Amino acid sequence: MVLRKFVIKVIGRQHPDATDYWDGNWIGSIINIEIPGYSVKFPANLKTDELLSFMEELKNLDETLKGKASLKSMEDFIMLEGEVDLTGKVMWTGETCYPLGTGAILKFDFKSDQSYLKFLIKGLKAILEEFPVIGKP
Question: How many separate domains does the chain show?
Fold first, then answer.
């Protein structure tokens, strides 16, 4: 299966006046994923430190073509994991849940070319430049 769209559109910080790590890093977003036979678009609260960790893992994956990169939201809205196979393709597995806690859980998998990693890294970098991680845990 080939990915058509994976977008995280950030609406803004959940607690814009917070200056601490625990409250200041929550962002409201819209997640939009489209692959053949699967399409979701829903609001989700994510943490900037989750996006930073995912971006760092993607950078490592892109540089070494080894290992895994994972995005797992604290509130279980989304889990996405990519791993490069022996042919250089990135094999992705994912799961979304909406509404939180009681909603439909949908699992999916797809593959992409490794060049897609640079696109993901660039998008995450843009989000983190506008909404950097605040404070330290």
Answer: 1
